[in-house]
């Protein structure tokens, strides 16, 4: 198999994804708060992938400015990720539609029916996350045009199931819409394997944090480059009475202090000093602003260094276009090596 033949095969494997996204390669950028902004998003789209703005806690005015600034940097398609629990979700959808954003991602919980209708009626394509096959089918019935399944290997807020299991559960059985896979993906060979299982494409976040165009603080990038996969661990819940949504991040002093903070809050609750609601709030507020401290201010000791387990595959700062080209080259090399091995076996 020649390189051109391998590329034709790869393009065929992810054609459903590229057709849906309107991109050259079916590689979506994960929406990472403070990181997935105009510079990185436009760089991913300009390199042939599909960048996604992380709206996070932005106001409608801030999102309006961010979309306009991104559009000034790229003529290629890109999407916007909105958190379903945002108090101004309807207004944020309106901003996206006013700008003609082609793809809207609703994340962070089950999308309200009204939000789904607003996106669909506005002419945008709707992408949703699903942690299980049953919910994925429900989302498709509700109007989702594509789904993302994200394994526990991912960075940030995670579910309990690995991508290798989710892919086996979902990909063979949910074929009505394109399904993109995410979580722990850092090389082209892995992308190829999921495409061959039926994925329409992939979503990568951690690999892009150390892109040259990423505005992440140099100290954060160095922390990523030094880290191994085992350094990216989920936060631990100390007491089942006070749930902690798992967040995968690099372990640092802040992580250790969070454990001590939980223990102190539980002690105060048991002593009658705090109500259950006050105790839960005290735990949830510990990390308030911690992601910004790490990404923007470079406080890698006390901030939240959200990272997927693929952080161990991040070895240097690279231009976004180089990262995407490297992933494609790895997938092509795997296809050509397989073809060569098959030819050798046939000759024997």
Automatic annotation (TrEMBL):
User: Keywords on this record?
Assistant: Flavoprotein, FMN, Monooxygenase, Oxidoreductase
Q: Which portions of this protein are annotated as coiled-coil regions?
A: none
Molecular function per GO:
nitronate monooxygenase activity
InterPro entries registered for this protein in UniProt: NMO
Q: What is this protein called?
A: Nitronate monooxygenase
What organism does the record attribute this protein to?
Elioraea tepida
């Amino acid at each position: 198999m020649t390189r051109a033949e391998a590329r034709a095969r790869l393009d065929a494997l992810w054609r459903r994804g590229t057709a849906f996204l309107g991109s050259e390669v079916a590689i979506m950028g994960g929406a990472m708060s403070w990181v997935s902004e105009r510079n990185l998003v436009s760089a991913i789209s300009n390199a042939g992938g599909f960048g996604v703005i992380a709206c996070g806690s932005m106001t409608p005015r801030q999102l309006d400015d961010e979309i306009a600034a991104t559009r000034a940097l790229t003529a290629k398609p890109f999407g916007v990720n909105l958190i379903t629990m945002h108090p101004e979700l309807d207004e944020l959808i309106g901003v996206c539609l006013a700008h003609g954003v082609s793809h809207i991602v609703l994340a962070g919980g089950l999308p309200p029916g009204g939000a789904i209708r607003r996106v669909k009626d506005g002419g945008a394509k709707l992408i949703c996350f699903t942690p299980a096959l049953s919910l994925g089918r429900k989302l498709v019935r509700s109007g989702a045009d594509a789904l993302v399944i994200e394994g526990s290997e991912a960075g940030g807020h995670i579910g309990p199931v690995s991508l290798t299991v989710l892919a086996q559960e979902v990909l063979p059985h949910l074929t009505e819409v394109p399904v993109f896979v995410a979580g722990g993906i850092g090389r082209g060979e892995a992308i190829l394997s999921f495409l061959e299982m039926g994925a329409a494409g992939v979503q990568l976040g951690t690999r892009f944090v150390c892109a040259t165009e990423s505005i992440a603080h140099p100290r954060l990038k160095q922390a990523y480059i030094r880290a191994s996969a085992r350094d990216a661990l989920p936060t631990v819940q100390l007491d089942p009475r006070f749930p902690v949504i798992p967040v995968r991040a690099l372990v640092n002093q802040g992580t250790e202090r969070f454990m001590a903070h939980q223990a102190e809050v539980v002690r105060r609750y048991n002593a009658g000093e705090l109500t259950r609601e006050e105790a839960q709030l005290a735990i949830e507020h510990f990390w308030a602003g911690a992601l910004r401290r790490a990404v923007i201010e470079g406080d890698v000791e006390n901030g939240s260094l959200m990272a997927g387990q693929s952080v161990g595959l991040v070895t240097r700062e690279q231009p976004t276009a180089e990262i995407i080209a490297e992933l494609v080259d790895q997938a092509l090399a795997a296809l050509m090596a397989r073809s060569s091995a098959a030819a050798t076996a046939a000759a024997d």
